[in-house]
Every structure is written in C-alpha cells, then in structure tokens.
Amino acid sequence: MSKAVINLETLACPSCMQKIEAAIKSVEGVEKDSVKVLFNASKAKLNFDQEKTNIEEIEKAINTVGFKVLKSKVR
Amino acid sequence: MQPLILANKNKITAISGILIAIGFFANFVFGSELIFNISFIIASLIGALPIAIQAFQALRFKVISIDLLVTIAVLGAFIIQNYEESAIVTFLFLFGSYLEQRTLNKTRSAIKKLTEMAPDTALLKKDDEFIEVDIDEVEIGNILLVKTGAKVPVDGKVVDGNGYANEASITGESKPVNKDLGKNVYAGTILENGTIQIEAEKVGEDTTFGKIIELVEEAQDSKSSTERFIDKFAKYYTPFVLVMAFVVWLFTKDIELSITILVLGCPGALVIGVPVSNVAGIGNSAKHGVLLKGSEIINDFAKVDSILFDKTGTLTVGNPEVAEKKYYTKDINRALVYLHSIESESDHPLAKAILKDIDVKQKVNIDSTEVIKGGGIVATIDGHEVVVGNPTLLEANNVILTDEIKADISNYEQRGNSLVLMAINQQVQIILGIRDQIRPGVKKDLVKIKKFGVEDLIVLSGDNQGTVDLIAKELGLTKAYGNLLPEEKSAYITNLQEQGKIVAFVGDGVNDSPSLASANIGIAMGSGTDVAIETSDVVMINSDFSKLPDALAITKTISNNMIQNIIIAVGVVIILLSALLFSDWMNMSIGMLVHEGSILAVILNGMRLLRYKPKF
After folding, report:
1. Which residues span the domain enclosing A19?
2. Residue B179: inside a domain, yes or no?
3. What is chain A's Cα-based Rg?
4. Which run of H or of E encompasses B610?
5. ipTM for the complex?
6. Do B225 and A17 touch (CB under 8 A)?
7. Structurally, how many domains does chain A consist of?
C-alpha cells in the first residue's frame, strides 16, 4: 500500500469535496476508506495499491471532474 | 472549455450584474423592452453556464447540489420566458458564492502561512560536496549542511560545527538556543548564526514541525467538513421542490404552474442571506479588533459553553517579576553571586525574572549542576552544595526550614508568588517571591463572558498548582489545572468535547498550537507568535483581552442574524408555495414581488450587522 498526498488547486465550494472524493474512490485499487479530501488545505490524502493503479491514474480522475493537481507525493 | 468558464466565474458574475443594470435602465428610462429582454437573456445564459456545469459534475457522482435546483429553475423561467427572474436568480446565486469564497479565503491564509514556514530544500552531502536537493529526497542518516539564516530542513543531531538556532516555531521561545556537537535540532527552526552539519533522524511528516502542520491541517478541516446548514438543508429542499413541481404537473398538467413552483421555490434569499450576514459580521468585528477567520467559526463560537485559558500571557501579562525577597544571611553578596551564576545557565522564566532583578554581574565557576524537573537546580560551587528551587526541593536536600522561614513561605504563597529559595550548605540564604501580574480588567471581562451563558471558565497551565489555584480564585474561574504539558492541555480539550461541550481555547505561543487547533474555537492573543495567530480561529488584535466578550457578543449577533435570514427566506418560500397551491389570489407577479422583497429583506437585515456595536 502506498500513501499519496495530492495538492489541489484552491477548493471553493463544499460540494467540490464530494465530487473529488467520489472521483478518487472510483479508481480501481484505491483504498476507499483512506480517501480524505481536506477542504481548507486543498489537499487529498489516500492509500492505494501500486500493483493495481498508479498516481497518474488518480490524478487523471481528479482532472475529469474539473480540478487541477498542483503537486503530488507518493510514499 | 469547462475549466475556462469556471475559472472566470467572478467575471461572469460582474458581467451579468452589469447586464441586469443595463436592462433595468433601458426599461425604466427609455421604455425599451427589446434591450431589456436581450440583456436579461444574455445575463441568464452566461450566468447559468457555470452553475449548470457544476450541477452536472455533481450529478455524475450522484450528488444533488443546490446548483441543480438553480439550473432547473432558470431553465424553467427561461421556458416560460421570464428572463428577468432567470437573470436575477443566476446573478444572485453567483454573487452569493462569490461572497462565500471571500470569507473562505480568510480561513485559508491560516494553514498557508504555516506550511510556508516548512523548508523546501536541503544541502545534502555527497562525496564531500554539498548539493541542493528537494526536501523529499532527504533520507534518515543523510548528512546535511545548514548555513546561517537558513531553516533547519529535518529533525536531527549536530555532527559538526556550532551555532545558535531560533526555535520559536516549535517552542514559542524566540531566544536563540546554542547548538553544538550532539545537540538536537528541529525542522522549521532557523539557524540565526554559525554553520552546522546535521545527521537526519526524522524527515517529512515525522518531524516535530511536520506533525504540528499535519495536526493543524486536519483539525481545521475536520471543522469545516461539518457541512453547512444551508447545504444540508438544500439536500432535502432540492429534491422536495423538484418532486413537488413534478407532482403538481402530474395532477394539473399545467406546465406553467409547475415551473412557477420551481421559480418560487428557488432559494434566492436563502442563497444570499447567509453570506451577507457573514461578510457584514466579519467586517464589523474586524473594525472592533476581533478577526473571525471564516463562517463556520461564527456558529461554533456563538454556541460556546466552556472557555479554557492559558495562564501566562493570557490571563497574566506574561512578564514574571520578582515581587518581594528576603535575606537570611549576612553575606548577601556571596549569595547573590552564586544565585547569578546558577540562574545564568537556565532559561526558565523564573530564572530570567531573577536575573533581571539582581544587580550582581560577577560570576563564579560552577563545578557541577543537576536540573530537577519541576523543582529547581542543585549545584556544587567551590565545594559547597547550593540548592536553588522550590520548598519541596530544599526539603528533599535536607535544608533546614526554620519556623520563621516556614511562615514566610506560607505568607509568600498566599500572596500569589511562585517561590524560589536558595540554600548554601543546607542553610537558607534568600527567598524570592515571583509574580506575574494579572492583566488589568480581566476580572470584569470574565464576568461579562459568564453573562453570555458560558458555564465553565477553566485555566490550563504549565505553572504550579498553587499559583494557578490562586489566579482561579481571584478571577472567579470554575476550574484550575496546573503542571500540564501542551499535549495534556490538548487531550483535556478533546475529553471535554467528547462530553458534548463546545470548547474555546484562549492562548498564545506555538506550544499552544495543538490546543488552539483541537478546540472548537482557538483564540490567539495578538502579541502571541505568528503560528499561534495563524492557526487560531479568532484573533484579538493588540492582544486586548477586553475584546473577548465583544467577540462573543458579535458572533452571537451574527449567528442570530443568519438564523433570521434563513427564517425569512424559508418562511417566504413556504408562504408563497402554499398560497400558490391553496388560494386563488397568488399569481406569478405577486409571488415574484414577494420573492424579490425577501431577498432585499435579508440583505438589509445583514447590513444591520455593519452598524452593530457590542453593549453590556
């Protein structure tokens, strides 16, 4: 399991969080309970299985709901 | 295209507002219905675009947002060719979210400033050379170079060189600390002079500073993730209005009536009512020297029932001074020279107060010192055993306390002194009573706070229980806890919250950051450190304690104002809908008039906050 911290563009509406959370959870290989979107910090934190998916897939999912990824860190 | 539209939402709002103004102007001044209609159609179309996109994006993930209702309502108004309503509804909706965004940005600056204090790069040793690398590339065991003025990149140990580090970001203490071989250094602290090489022991989020950031980040977000009342309400309100319109259409087959329901049900006043109260209230409180960081804070603070205080620098001035002293020896000079020598090695606040008080500059060599935590210092000078500390430490070291000294101790304590005694070879030489003055006016302010229904006023302090008890008694606090570490304070707050209390914490200093973050409301006094101010929810400018009751009064008023606005908005909608369904006199134009009137009413009600002055 890898841990990812994704810095997003500034989040403005509370429903943005729901959208991003749902988008990340839709990626196969992401541990659903680990997904946390921090509204004020404009960050997403999650765990994922590196054998099933990668950080690029997750970033792509966030892009499709209309949000930019500024920086991501995987550990 | 979609991101482009969303990115320019504010411009779209402004353009739509201008178009509406042009439309009205053309209609009333020139009587031109054509220009009136065209400008309102354009305003509706460009205004509805970002709202529709947001509604659609949310719908894809099964989230029924308030955007959806607005989109359908605008669409409905458009179909029955009521461009005025469609334009005004879209404009008000966009303008409302703009106002909300502005208050949100204030909350944001808090964490941003904190994370900016974290270092980005480090100088990593590779083959006897130091190269600049990204902070993420540093691993445990790496040797790093820290130059004068640079931030320490990770937690570690000094392996070469020496210098002085400012550790205010971790400890709140801004006096530089000497760092030589073997000393621990912490990420986020600043090396004020010297050059050191360090071995990395903890990196990234594991460092003390990284943990503070993470704690604050998560604490702040756990607060704002409590969905706002409006959005919760809209969750049921949106489907309710949709279903209602659909049911009406099913039974009456009257498209215009069902669309009218959507138009009337569209929460125009509701959408703008809360942001208006917020912006007006936050603006007004800033004028009164109280910075409220964001809208969630207002609701929480208005409901607060327990207020916890840090002692030093919050209830007291934060400048301990020697208030009284007494000598039991003839050789005063020797006693003072020894005291000066020993206290010079300590950076305890009491030691500083003593050094400031005594006039001796002379120092002698100390052979050995032992610091007893929570007691004092035991040292050997020139073969003499010297004990400096509280009565317990002296008794533990077999110092004889005569009846006279015992009486003095009890008198000093009763007068609220923290005690430092000094003994040479088991003979007491001097007693010092050190006091930190209570802030002027605090007692009166606390009485005011109690009037607002705050049940518990509690002091949490690292100082001894005696001093804390005395302050609690003098100020009429309900509880007093001394000898607490920062994490124990924060644990106590969490404990209270688990009992269902809504807790505010008032303090300064970075070591209070965990408490400021974990309390429902963290309140920083202005003269506190930057981080404390940035991580708190409410800041008192100029460290003015008397602003605290003002802050409470203002937030309660703002919170009431919001509730009034919600009642006006919802009440009007309920009256309109029921009149439409159950009476003959309701038609579209009357409904619209009342609807617009309610929007005006909530804005005017919100504006009252701009003139509000706290009264007691």
Report:
1. 2-74
2. no
3. 11
4. none
5. 0.71
6. yes
7. 1
